[in-house]
Sequence to fold (309 residues):
Amino acid sequence: MVTGQSPHRPTSGPRVDDALIVCDNLVKIYQVADLEVVALQGLDLVVERAEFVALVGASGSGKSTLLNILGGLDKPSAGKARVGDFDLIAMTDADRTAYRRNTIGFVWQQTARNLLPYLSAVDNVAMPMLLAGSSSRQRRTAAMTLLEVVGLADRHAHKPGQLSGGEQQRVAVAIALANDPQVLFADEPTGELDTATSAALFDVLRSVNEQRGVTIVVVTHDPQVADHVRRTVAIRDGRTSSEVLRRTRVGADGAHQVVSEEFAVLDRAGRLQLPTEYVEALELDDRVRLTLDPDHINVWPDEDGANDR
Ligand code: ADP
Ligand code: MG
Fold:
């Protein structure tokens, strides 16, 4: 049997210190009347600079809660969250405003929430630049450049009502990039789009990531997402539960192959979520036996326990 200290992942070290985003044991509890809803229960997440990470998970698993905290729109109940030099828990309201204005960009699922209906596409993109104090001509030129980045230069004069849902979301990406943020957060940006239009939006996000070096964290329901990004993190019950990494390998014949591999996530308290299908296949329940081999750990059903019942 394995006894003694549980493994402990360091909260600092080369990977964590250089990372752009670090969430450490994040907890968020919502109080609704007499009820407490635990939306995040000790979530850990590290995102490197210039990474493109997708967050997936069932409805209610805590994805929006996490993104709202990272976006400076909500505060966690406990734990640590850092983006760049900003400590999202300790920062002042003035810092929070500056953070939201300059460090990040945000894209919502609801197309209408991202755009002002009475402004043209180019004016929508130029809007967040007003506070930066550039001239109206500079703003327009910069906004046109961003519309080119998202492939919509020819639609610059259209108002949101004259654009398709996918086009509106591409304008939303351009708006989110207007202040040259370090990181772009998007909460189900393809939620209202069909498959082909979703794929096109992911292509735009990927080119923004690759060509401008903007770190991207995108929440999505899209089951195809793992094909578009290098790392997909699954959230279950307010914790990161597994990750899929997509890597390119050079095969024996010299050709590049893309290999996807799924990993379980070990959190800093040593907790591990077993995939539901494994739990069901062996009818694991309540207690399991662990044995340590030199290079791996075995998990066995508690058969004596089953016989007791
Ligand atoms: P997801 O985005 O993965 O669907 P959410 O982060 O929206 O999940 O929600 C996680 C949990 O927190 C859910 O149980 C949800 O009902 C609850 N929740 C989210 N926002 C609030 C809120 N403002 N007040 C109370 N409960 C909330
Ligand atoms: Mg959500």
About this structure: Residues 25 and 217 are 19 Å apart (CA to CA). The radius of gyration is 22 Å.
